[in-house]
Structures
1.
Amino acid sequence: MNSPHPAPPTVARQTTTREFLAVLFRRKWLVLGLFAVSTLTVLVIALTTPIVYVSTGRIMVKRGEQQSMLLPYRQVVNDWEADLASEVEIAKSYPVMMRAREILKSEARGGAPISLDPRQADAEVMGKSTVIGIAYEDRDPKVAQKVCDALLRAYIDYRQNALTLNYPKGFFENEIAKVKHDLDDWMERRRRFTTQNQLVDVADQTRKQLDVLGELEKRRNDLKSNIAETQATVDMMKRMSDEPEVDLPNLTAPGSGDALLEIRHRVVEQEARVAQLRERYRDDSPEVTNANETLNTLRAVLQKQVDARVEVSESRVHSLQAALAVVEHDLAEQQAALASMPDKEVTLAEMDREISVLKTRYEDLSKDADQARVTQNTSPTVNVFLLSPAGAPVFKTTRDYIRLALAPAFSLVIGIGLAFFLDGLDVTVHTSGQAEEAMELPVLATLNERRRAR
């Protein structure tokens, strides 16, 4: 059975502008809050981010090593990519940073040097080339350029002086100075030793000492012989002094003098005359008395001469003994010096050997240093060249106002979409359209419309 009033067909209803604005009005705090938060966040980030300037310089590392300046050929190094990566790390290494700090300190001219932060330095290979770019960033453009220039010079200096096979000037200078110091020390020790021991030529001095020793021994023997002869003469004269009647056969020896012999003969003659007079006269006769007085006088003269001769001979004995003591002393010194000559010769030979070794080493080091200089000038290693110095600083971080404006705009769009999404999840009836959809009946009028109609 058909209904007398069939239901009208359902027609999809479209959202009106009023309903769109109503949703925005209901969710206005969500949209405005998201817009305000995003805008504030962008402003805070933009205002707190400092403006950084970057200065960059370029260095080319020449590929390959020239074998010699005398030959035009160059040897290409394998694994060049790895070598370039190593060069990049070297440019950011601690020694390079320290050298850059030294350069900045030397350029400070008494003021506070510019501080260098390794975290603000960077290096990279420029494309597919052997060019390395070294950069430094700082908030002060002048500081960025100066530090970048110091980094470039520090890298070139470190690469050419520390990592290349250049002439090892410090090594040779230290070794040559050390050898020269040791050589001078040994030369001074040898000089003091030869001065203290009065050494010039050991072999020649040994021969001379042997000759002197022979002469001293001969002189000692002569002195001993003279002393013995003189002592014998003294003994004879003393005996004659004690026993006037004794006959002395050696009184005519050199040094004894002929006067004693003559006096002795006169005494003997006078004794013979006295004996003759006694045979002819009495002992108390004037002739015998006078002869005895003459004899006594001659004996007194003889005694006086003998005593004088004994004193002179004893003096000569003492002088000969003193001369013998001097000769003995000199002989002992010469024997001691001769006995010490082998040890001195050994010591001097050791010193000469050390000096010879040091001289040879000094000559070898000097020759090697000269050869190293020649090798340096004829066989250079990998070279680095400065292509461009530290350039004018450029902005690294800038305030892009277009992007700053896009962030709040996108947040506004997202807020509107989020508002409609949340409104779609809300099942509460807010508008006449929602009422028609929920009741499937048309809305004839609303209170708001009635009031506006009145």
2.
Amino acid sequence: MPFDLTVFGPRVQEHAAEWDSLGLDWAVAPIHPNYGKALTWATFDGAEWLAQMSIWDTGETEVETVRKWDGQAINKHYDVANVTDLDTAIEEVLRLLRDGEVPPGAFIP
């Protein structure tokens, strides 16, 4: 059963005040069919971080971030099965961008 991508934008939007308080320019893209594997994403760009969170209707979710002052990438893959999983991923992105807390299981090249 495909993951309902229509919940992604509103879940990101729920944190608007937090994204704004971090000085981030952020946006959520519309859902794209992407050759039969639909996806959407959100981008976050601020003085310290550049980040993108992409989610496909399969539940595969990729978070890619770059800390601007030193170019350090911190990325993580999620397999989102429900809204609770999505909320967890969004909260981990928020903690990384706000507090510098690296998500458990993140890939740091």
